[in-house]
Amino acid sequence: MSLLGKLFGRSEEKEKRLEEGLEKTKESVFGKLARAVAGKSTVDADVLDNLEEVLITSDVGVSTTVKIIERIEERVSRDKYMNTSELQSILREEIASLLAENQAGDGASFDLPDHKPYVIMVVGVNGVGKTTTIGKLAAQFKAAGKKVVLGAADTFRAAAVDQLVVWSERADVPIVKQGMGSDPASVAFDTLQSAVSQQADVVLIDTAGRLHNKVNLMNELGKIKRVMQKVVPDAPHEVLLVLDASTGQNALNQAVEFSKVTDVSALALTKLDGTAKGGVVIGISDQLKVPVKYIGVGEKIEDLQVFDRKAFVDRFFS
Predict the structure, then answer these.
(1) Cβ count near 14 (within 10 Å)
(2) Which of 65, 136, 278, 287 is disulfide-compatible with 25, CB 3.0–4.6 A?
(3) Which residues have a Cβ under 8 Å from the Cβ of 161 and sit 6 or more positions away?
(4) How far is the C-alpha of 83 from the C-alpha of 103, rounded, in Å?
(5) Which residues of 110-121 are buried (b: 16+ CB within 10 A; e: fewer)?
(6) CB–CB of 292/87 below 8 Å?
(7) How far is CA 228 from the centre of its chain?
(8) What is the pTM of this model?
(9) What secondary structure letter does DSSP report for 106?
(10) pLDDT at residue 185 is higher than 90
């Protein structure tokens, strides 16, 4: 487990918050699953068809659902006879296996190398909780004894800058900002210069999320990277895409679009506590082959948790 995995590791309270956060998804999935196997004693074609519908309507996604069903079909074929009471444990194993294959929640949060600063560029459309996620991360890094600097490079929304200023005050970390409409790359450049001079450990750069014009977005993110590299040659070290889990398949669509315009290296899924669409975590991880590193299960700073696939699957099926 990485340094931050230990710092932000599991606790009884976090396990409880995770279980509460997944409650709506769990009730939805297993309510549907119970109906899917009602009156059936063995896992036959009808049960698998019903299971397929359960997973798709739980926002796991068609492609990932087909993959899970095919794996279960192989096991049914191999074992010849499988009763429906075994189905839940088999489904649990296959979901855990998929998450492991995609390195989701492998306990290796953001590793901090010896050289400073560690630069995280945060992307995502407006309204997904991007700025709030940055604020919570800043507070957690600060609580872990790290020196943090924020960069308000979402200069197209005054509210985004104002919100990040509030979070910088709440987390007691410095922020670099310019006026609304300023060049985002200029803000990023100033932020990294400030971070280097302060010998900061972590830099969190907020960026604008406008998918309606992908060419402009791609150009802007590319420019931000190039300008940052004038100060820190290998920046950014992570590109964190923030998605709203409550939007289900729309979150997956956003993830696909962002992956086309920038090299997304990690995912954060917010608002899991208010939705029955938690299955989207499984689908997005599988479709993008990008690790889920953070999930949001509530409003508190500590409710942004390092994603632990074992804890997720355990709470999902408990």
Answers:
(1) 18
(2) 278
(3) 152, 154, 155, 177, 180
(4) 31
(5) bebeeebbbbbb
(6) no
(7) 24
(8) 0.89
(9) B
(10) yes
Residues 257, 6: contact at Cβ < 8 Å? no
Contact 152, 187 (CB under 8 A): yes
Contacts of 281 (CB under 8 A, 6+ apart): 104, 245, 269, 272, 292, 295, 307, 312
Q: Where would I find the H helices in the chain?
A: 3-7, 12-21, 23-36, 45-57, 62-79, 87-101, 130-143, 158-171, 184-197, 214-228, 249-261, 280-288, 309-317
Q: What is the dihedral of CA 302, 138, 109, 200, to 10 degrees?
A: -150
Per-residue pLDDT of 161-176, as tens digits, reads: 999 999 999 999 999 9
Q: Cα(164)–Cα(174) distance, rounded to whole angstroms?
A: 10
What residues contact 196, with CB distance under 8 A and at least 6 apart? Answer: 116, 117, 231, 232
- For residue 236, give both structure tokens: 């950014």
| Helix (H/G/I), strand (E/B), else coil: 246 | helix
- pLDDT tens for 23-47 read 888 888 878 888 878 788 888 888 8
| Cα separation, 291 vs 36, whole angstroms | 31
What pLDDT, on the 0 to 100 scale, is given for residue 107?
52
Q: List 121's β-bridge partners, or say none.
A: 205, 239
Q: Can you name the residues that pair with 153 across neighbouring β-strands?
A: 207
> CA 170, 278, 11, 204: dihedral to nearest 10 degrees?
-30
| Cβ-contact 119, 232 below 8 angstroms | yes
Residue 309 contacts residue 100 (beta carbons within 8 Å): yes
Check residue 9 and give its pLDDT: 55
pLDDT at 11 over 80: no
- Yes or no: say if 173 and 149 are a contact pair by the CB < 8 Å rule: yes
| Paired tokens of 35 | 């109906």
Task: List beta partners, residue 83.
Answer: 42
User: Residue 5 has what pLDDT?
Assistant: 46
Q: To which residue do tokens 């889920």 refer?
A: 292
